[in-house]
Amino acid sequence: MFQNLIGGEWVDAPDATENVNPSDTHDVIGAFAHADAAAVDRAVDAARAAFPAWARTTPQVRHDILRRAADEVLARAEELGRILSREEGKTLAEGIGEATRAGQVLAFFAGEALRCGGETVPSIRPGVGVEITREPLGVVGLITPWNFPIAIPAWKIAPALAWGNTVVFKPAELVPHSAWMLTDILHRAGLPAGVLNLVMGPGAVVGDRLVAHPDVAAITFTGSVTTGRRVAAGCVAAQPMKKVQLEMGGKNPFVVLDDADLETAVSCALNGAFFSTGQRCTASSRLIVTEGIHDAFVAALSERLKAVTVGHALEPDSQIGPVVDERQLASNERYLDIGRSEGARLLWGGERLNRPTPGFYQCPALFTEVDNGMRIAREEIFGPVAAVIRVKDYDAALAVANDTDFGLSAGIATTSLKYASDFKRNAEAGMVMVNLPTAGVDYHVPFGGRKGSSYGPREQGAYAREFYTVVKTAYTQP
Q1: What's the CA gap between 100 and 230, in Å, rounded?
Q2: Which position among 98, 247, 380, 459 bears the catalytic label?
Q3: What letters, b where the CB count within 10 A reaches 16 and e where it falls short, cover 339-370?
């Protein structure tokens, strides 16, 4: 059994969950301990006890630990990527790329530990000095999703530790192995006992207790809108109230204008909508295409989809792996039925696929003749399903792009500087891509959205300090 880490010790649990490979359901990766509410309490107690000393360590100590962890993750990126692909289902190339990204994130925040300075400003009162500094929050609870099982934990854990917080980490039940490996690497890199604690198990037990615990100062969450809203309500209702950060998904538009380079537009749409099996909150699930290029774009994208290889995540020829589990695959299929019932045309794909190993394989699906009011254009499907929406011109495309409850990422394919500039300014999204897929971001700049996609300060880059620290203003008169 893979154990939980509490107070610097690996701890057994009475129950465990089997981790199954979605590319081959006969392949059981291992049994992973279930934490109960009492285990969460012990983890929070350990984190609280470790906080005073950790908060006062020098930036150099925090840098060195994160740097050692980063070096090990990068050195073992292929091994970690294989583990990730085996348990989550993204292709091996994507798995190795994500593991590499986790190492890069750790290395970046190792540097940030040395750069968290303050300000000295003159007071409006003679002879008074003013210092503005940042301090850690205390115990931070981390709740992470299954679709990026090592990168998202890394970009939450690293800034929390870099700025002096202690952590209780709850990963998604579907993908505990990557989380366990990352925790083990950070633990062995020299973290004092209790600074980082791992509690695996169901959200209804582990997550709910973290949100309710009075000694947890803040919760950072990535997952569904429904769960995110419940987390936010719990943080507000908690005594005392907690700081909360939410990343909750998207229904991201990718606009294709008549003047776009067709090959660029199709490549961006294929990557953004279908790679990683469409299981990305930044996926291009709405392809908004102007009339002049619509038919050529649909024909070209359909041909590219027909050539895509869906297969076992670890096979070198696979371009798209399986859906993460049976429940997600069944949800995808329900949306195919919803789309057809609403009058959309399923132009290509959507069916289950048989492969040499039993798994959750699905052909990527492309809908046309979609209206932006349809459910398949309004609700996040989180699978390899995209909808093409025909519009008259750029103004109509921008209006449709912004007509959504989400606002994470938005993209446009165009050769016009005028339209590119206008879209960057007026797209109602936290991130905008021009002639690039909507999915795929850098680790040293802010990540986050607007509307129903995000709540609270941005993640990643130097902007992450807005969540993981609290500002103190101190006045001095000699």
Answers
A1: 32
A2: 247
A3: beebebebbbbbeeeeeebebbbbbbbbbbbb
| Own/partner long-range contacts of 344-348 (Cβ < 8 Å, ≥24 apart) | 344/368, 344/369, 344/370, 344/371, 344/374, 344/376, 344/387, 345/369, 347/298, 347/302, 347/388, 348/302, 348/305, 348/306
User: Please, what is the Cα angle at 443 between 439 and 446, to 5 degrees?
Assistant: 80
**259 with 414: CB under 8 angstroms?**
yes
CA dist 96 and 250 (Å) reads 25
User: Strand, helix or coil at 410?
Assistant: strand
Architecture of domain 253-434 in CATH? 3-Layer(aba) Sandwich (3.40)
What does the block give as tokens for 27?
């392949």
The pTM (predicted TM-score) of the whole model is 0.96
Return the CATH architecture of domain 4-248+453-476. Answer: 3-Layer(aba) Sandwich (3.40)
Q: What is the pLDDT of residue 117?
A: 86
Axis crossing angle, helix 176-188 with helix 59-75, rounded to the nearest 10: 130
**What is the pLDDT, as a whole number, of residue 26?**
97
Residue the block writes with tokens 């803040």: 218
Mean local confidence (pLDDT), 254-272:
98
Distance, CA of 184 to chain centre: 21
Rg (CA), the chain: 23
> Does 247 participate in catalysis according to the annotation?
yes
Vertex 443 angle, CA 460 and 187, to 5°: 75
Q: Where in the chain is the domain with CATH 3.40.309.10?
A: 253-434
Q: What is the pLDDT of residue 116?
A: 84
Q: Average per-residue pLDDT in the chain?
A: 97
C-alpha to C-alpha distance for 383 and 404, rounded to whole angstroms: 18
Do 251 and 379 meet the contact criterion of CB atoms below 8 Å apart? yes
Q: Tell me, what DSSP letter sits at residue 454?
A: E
Token code pair at residue 164: 């002096």
- Report the SS3 class of residue 108: helix
The per-residue pLDDT for range 378-436, each reduced to its tens digit, is: 999 999 999 999 999 999 999 999 999 999 999 999 999 999 999 999 999 999 999 99
Q: Which residues pair with 218 in a beta bridge?
A: 140, 243
Contacts of 303 (CB under 8 A, 6+ apart): none
Domain with CATH 3.40.605.10 in the chain: 4-248+453-476
> How far apart (Å, rounded) are the C-alpha atoms in residues 39 and 351?
42
Contact 81, 177 (CB under 8 A): no
| For the chain, percent of residues with pLDDT exceeding 70 | 100
